Amino acid sequence: MEENDARPRNGSTSAQVEDSTSKRLSYQTAPPYWLRNRSATHSTIGSLEGAPQITLKDNTEEDPEAHHQLWARSIIIDDYVVIQGNSVGIGAYVVWICEVETLDGNPMTIRKRYSEFDDLRNRLLKAFPDSTDTSLPPLPPKSAIYKFKPKFLEKRRQGLAYFLNCVMLSPQYASSIIVKDFIFHQSDG
Fold it and tell me: What is the pLDDT of residues 108-119, one digit of tens each?
C-alpha cells in the first residue's frame, strides 16, 4: 500500500482499511458535520450525582439471530454522475454510484438518486417509529444553489455513505423488505 493511500480522502475524517482478500478500500466515516454536537457542556462531580451509573454489558450472546440478518460487509459511495437536463440545465440530477460488498465477498453496484435515499429514510421512519438519529441519521441537507458544485457534492457523498452504512450494517434495518427493495430495485432515472 502506498504512503499516500493511508491518508483520509479530501481531508475527511475517514479512516481507510484495506481488505487483504479483495484489495478493496472500505471507508469507516464519522457522523457528518450536521450531526456533530456543536455545543460543549461541562459537568462537575456534583452535577453528576443522581445520574445513572455507566455499566458494561456483554451483548454477544444475547441475540445471535440478529447478526444473521446482516448480509453486507461494506458500503462505499465513491462516485457520482451528473445527468444533464435540457439545453439550459433544467431537469439535471445526480446519480450516486454505490458499491456494496456482501458478506460472501460478492460486489454489487447500485445507482441511486438523492430522492431515493430520501424515500428510503421516510419509509424506514414509518416502519420503525422508535428510530433515533443515531441509528437512522438524517440525510445531508439540500441546496438549490450549490447542488452541482464539487465541494457540496463531496459533503453529500460523505453524508449519504454514512446514512447507508448505518442502515445496511444494522440488523434491524438490513433485514427489512424496505431496504431490500431499495437495493435490488433499480429506477429508470
Answer: 999 999 999 999
97 in Cβ contact with 79 (< 8 Å): yes
Residue 131: inside a domain: yes
Q: Model-level pTM? A: 0.66
Helix (H) or strand (E) holding 13: none
Cell (9 digits) for 64: 445471535
Cell of 176: 427489512
Q: How many structural domains are present in the chain?
A: 1
157: domain CATH number?
A: 3.30.1520.10
Q: Nearest Cα to 70, choosing from 143, 186, 171?
A: 171
- Residue 49's contacts (CB-CB under 8 Å, 6 or more residues apart) are none
For residue 149, is it within any domain?
yes
d(CA 142, CA 32): 14
60 within a domain of the structure (yes/no)? no
Residue 70 C-alpha cell reads as 446482516
Structural domain that includes position 25: 13-29+67-184
